[in-house]
Design a protein that fits this description.
By secondary structure, this protein is of the alpha/beta class. The protein folds into two domains: about 160 residues, 3-Layer(aba) Sandwich (Alpha/beta knot), CATH 3.40.1280.10; about 60 residues, Trp Operon Repressor, Chain A (Orthogonal Bundle). It contains ten helices and nine strands. Strands 2-1-6-5-7 form a five-stranded parallel beta sheet, sandwiched between helices. α4 crosses α6. The model has no long low-confidence stretch (mean pLDDT about 95). The structure holds ligand 4FV. The site of ligand 4FV has 16 residues, from β5.
């Protein structure tokens, strides 16, 4: 999986890639991440990346030229990307399905360019000129797209075979089943007067699986009933949900 990140704060991205499974994926060569300083694609001696907004108003807007030059240089140096993503609150909501879509392109061999906005955002013409799709990590305003780019890199990279040690755990992650995850426990079996559910100590794998599925359904019904519409539910799940709904009334 190949990522090219365009930002005015390269160190923020490098810091976010320096730990954990992502850094191991990079070291193992499964992930290839290049970070580009947008100022390297400016031509004026002040290395300006922003300018005043047409139509007036507060703040500054990111200039089109450096961003378009950066994307062109990446295309020449690293090949034509499968997708150019501009991180912005105006984008479609990034979620596990989007992560799966992006990681699935050419079965994990995709090449993504991530544009990190700053100030009020980027000149709108850039999006069309570089064929960018806008993605948002949530309905809140960040001071820059860097953290959003790191969220996308992390969520997408985890789905690339070989990045997360045990691919099994990725399959069982939250949302990969369309449901919230079941509760997790580890030693000690008793802590602060609180015991681990007996079934988890029983060794009955089928019972454990059943308990975890019901716990995930209960949690999803409680906290994110919206997810149940799109979750892949079988007969047993629907029966469990009916029982849970009955127990709530
Ligand atoms: C954002 C988000 C986000 C908006 C103005 C950067 C900031 C500044 N990006 N999901 N939410 N971006 O708030 O992706 O340019």
């Amino acid at each position: 999986m190949k990522f090219d990140v365009v930002t005015i704060f390269p160190r923020m991205i490098e810091a976010g890639l320096a730990e954990g499974v992502i850094s191991r994926g990079i070291a193992a060569g499964v992930l290839d991440v290049a970070v580009h300083d947008l100022r390297d694609f400016t031509t004026d001696r002040h290395r300006s990346v922003d300018d005043v907004p047409y139509g007036g108003g507060p703040g500054m807007v990111m200039k089109p030229e450096p961003l378009v030059r950066a994307c062109e240089a990446i295309r020449q140096a690293r090949g034509t990307p499968d997708a150019v993503i501009a991180l912005s609150p105006q984008g479609r909501q990034f979620d596990q399905a989007a992560a799966a879509r992006l990681s699935g392109i050419r079965n994990g061999g995709a090449h993504l360019v991530l544009l990190c906005g700053r100030y009020e955002g980027v000149d709108e013409r850039v999006l069309d000129l570089v064929g960018a799709e806008e993605l948002s990590i949530g309905d809140y305003v960040l001071s820059g797209g860097e953290l959003a780019a790191l969220v996308v890199i992390d969520a997408v990279s985890r789905l690339v075979p070989g990045v997360v040690g045990d691919d099994q755990s990725v399959q069982e992650d939250s949302f990969s089943s369309g449901l919230l995850d079941h509760p997790h426990y580890t030693r000690p079996a008793e802590f602060a007067g609180k015991a681990v559910p007996d079934v988890l100590l029983s060794g009955h794998h089928a019972e454990v699986r059943k308990w975890r599925r019901k716990a995930a359904l209960a949690r999803t019904l409680e906290r994110r009933p919206d997810l149940l519409e799109s979750a892949a539910l079988d007969e047993g799940d629907r029966a469990a949900l009916d029982e849970l709904r009955r127990s709530k009334t």
